[in-house]
UniProtKB/TrEMBL annotation:
Belongs to the LysR transcriptional regulatory family. GO terms for molecular function: DNA binding. It holds the Pfam family HTH_1. Residues 6-63 form the HTH lysR-type domain. Keywords: DNA-binding, Transcription, Transcription regulation. Gene3D superfamilies: Periplasmic binding protein-like II, Winged helix-like DNA-binding domain superfamily/Winged helix DNA-binding domain. It comes from Rhizobium paknamense. It comes from the Bacteria. PANTHER family: GLYCINE CLEAVAGE SYSTEM TRANSCRIPTIONAL ACTIVATOR (PTHR30537:SF26), HTH-TYPE TRANSCRIPTIONAL REGULATOR (PTHR30537). This is DNA-binding transcriptional LysR family regulator. The keyword Nucleotidyltransferase does not apply. Coiled coil: none annotated.
Amino acid sequence: MRRYLPSLSALHAFEAAARYMNFTRAADDLGLTQSGISRQIRNLEEFLGATLFHRSGPRLVLTETGANYYRNLALTLDRLEEISIDAVRGRSVDSSLMIGTHPTLASRWLPERLGAFIGSYPDIPLEVMPAMPSTDFETTQLDVAILRGVGTWLHARSIELFPEVLAVVASPALIPPGSKLDPLQFAEFPLLQNAGRPSLWLNWLRLAKLSYSGRIQGTRFAHHEMIINAAIHGLGLAVVPTFYIRQEVANGQLHMPFGEPVQSDDSYYLVYPERKFHNPNVIVFRDWLLRSLRKA
């Protein structure tokens, strides 16, 4: 018998639209036009005999049927992707460990530790991918993630690894080392902004118990890796987590002219989907990471 299945194109269009809650962004993601996305979703709704979206003013909202369909479809598409990858590379995704984290953590903090893990567990292939605090752990294909937050993610378990500590740093080319500056003098220098964390300067002021009412503006960069490099080149002051810049501070590329670091309200956590609680590779990585941090 012929299977009762809608077209894969329609499923792709619906999954992207539900993920972004925006037809235009879904169209950009899939390389289609907005009208093409609308047409595919209309065809899918006609096939299912159900309404998947409705409008609430300017916002796009999933119906209850649409929300349930999206939740199950995302898992199904993830699984379909996994078995397709298995066919290409000749091994099961289940044998590997997929780790998600912030781009800067993935490039600065994680690699220096993964060598020890690979040496101890050479039979567990690793894949490192970008992940955000907004990761949906009900549908994600990640096995574990290392994320900044307050420790609460839906459909996931989390273990605190270490608190976040923030510092204002500068290049010696911008401010000579040994300069004695009042913390509020930060406003006299160009500032670097984190587009992903636009309130970092305000957070630093609050945590440092400084009263400042002026404007805070400056060149914006996408994430900490870009900001650190910009600070090293003297483009401005930056607020960054101290564990990212230990080497740069130690070798004098950056220094802290406005006082000691301050602990933020966030910490970094090991997070993994509730459904993967018994996954043996997750257990091995979790226990190894906690042991290695205790020894550090």
